[in-house]
Design brief:
Blueprint (H helix, E strand, L loop, with lengths): L19 H9 L1 H22 L1 H24 L6 H39 L1 H6 L5 H34 L7 H9 L2 H21 L2 H21 L14 E7 L4 E3 L7 H7 L1 E8 L5 H32 L1
Antiparallel strand pairs: 1-2, 1-3
Helix pairs in contact: 1-6, 2-3, 2-4, 2-6, 3-4, 4-6, 4-8, 4-9, 6-8, 8-9, 8-11
């Protein structure tokens, strides 16, 4: 009788897992990464709601009341069925505010737990004695959060651009639509990266958590304020007006030129107007301004990263 060879054990294949410095950064700052992921998911959920159910209901109200009724209700503070359009209008701007807050939070995080706390506690120097050079340590510290911040911000900006393209016409007239239009783009992705660089430089220079938090927060707040009020960025005084295509709809459903008599009942009756439509047209200044702003923000980020490595070189040798 011949012996039966035992069956070979199945070969188990394991997916590659992060290791070394990347794994250390992920584990050390996992709470911050979970908070960032939660922020991205919640903000994306708000944008998707604005794209879907919120827009559908608002469009129904506009079809019922017209833009004139909604604007009159918003200005007078009256409570009618069209009040929901004012709520949708306000919610439309919230993701832009959240993205500004996120860039501020990134700067504070980079100044605090990412850099200054480790220098203050001595854990950074301990890592440098474990065959990890200071340059590699800082590179990992910057690369991991930069990857998460960029991926999350790109997703939110893409959804925001989709929302604007699909339902920007639902916004009430004013400077708000113009400000949102000029604030959504690649510059919105570059802003938190600059915050990461500002926080890193501040943390390495001060090496004390609380002072670094305060200085980085003030610096990033100044960046946000400068973007909002200075050419070539989206300041309400310098940015160009958005062209608007507005049409009036008669009781028969026909489109006629806008007679510009939103609140004059006699004029509306004379032209048989029952509602209005509005469409914000693209601005030829959008991409020149976006690219210029993005270039300025990224150039400042690169300079600050180089400064951070220079400060680290002096710190590690002292």
């Amino acid at each position: 009788m011949s012996a039966v060879a035992p069956a070979a054990a199945p070969v188990r294949r394991h997916l590659p897992a992060p290791h070394g410095l990347v794994w250390t950064v992920l584990r050390l700052h996992r709470t911050a990464l979970w908070i960032w992921s939660g922020f991205v998911v919640l903000t994306a959920g708000l944008l998707l709601w604005l794209l879907g159910p919120g827009a559908d209901h608002t469009q129904h109200l506009l079809d019922t009341f017209g833009y004139a009724g909604v604007q009159r209700d918003a200005w007078s503070g009256g409570i009618t069925g069209s009040t929901f359009s004012g709520v949708y209008n306000d919610l439309f701007y919230d993701p832009a505010s959240l993205l500004n807050i996120a860039s501020f939070a990134v700067a504070v995080f980079a100044a605090g737990s990412l850099t200054s706390r480790e220098l203050e506690n001595g854990t950074a120097r301990l890592a440098w004695t474990q065959s990890v050079t200071p340059a590699r340590w800082l590179a990992a510290k910057l690369a991991v959060p930069a990857l998460f911040v960029t991926a999350g911000t790109v997703l939110l900006v893409v959804l925001y651009r989709m929302l604007w393209s699909a339902h920007g016409n639902l916004l009430l007239a004013g400077i708000g639509p113009r400000a949102v239009y000029f604030s959504i783009g690649p510059a919105t992705v570059a802003a938190p990266l600059l915050g990461l660089a500002i926080g890193t430089v501040t943390g390495l220079a001060l090496r004390r958590t609380l002072p670094a938090l305060a200085v980085a927060g003030l610096a990033q707040y100044a960046v946000i304020a400068f973007r909002a009020n200075s050419w070539p960025f989206q300041g309400s005084y310098q940015q160009p007006d958005l062209s608007v295509r507005s049409r009036a709809i008669t009781s028969t459903g026909a489109e006629i030129p806008n007679p510009d008599c939103y609140f004059d009942r006699a004029c509306l009756a004379r032209h048989d107007v029952v509602r209005f439509t509005r469409e914000y047209l693209p601005s030829p200044d959008y991409w020149p301004r976006q690219l210029l702003e993005t270039g300025v923000l990224l150039a400042a980020t690169v300079i600050l990263v180089a400064v951070a490595f220079g400060i680290l070189r002096r710190t590690s040798t002292s």
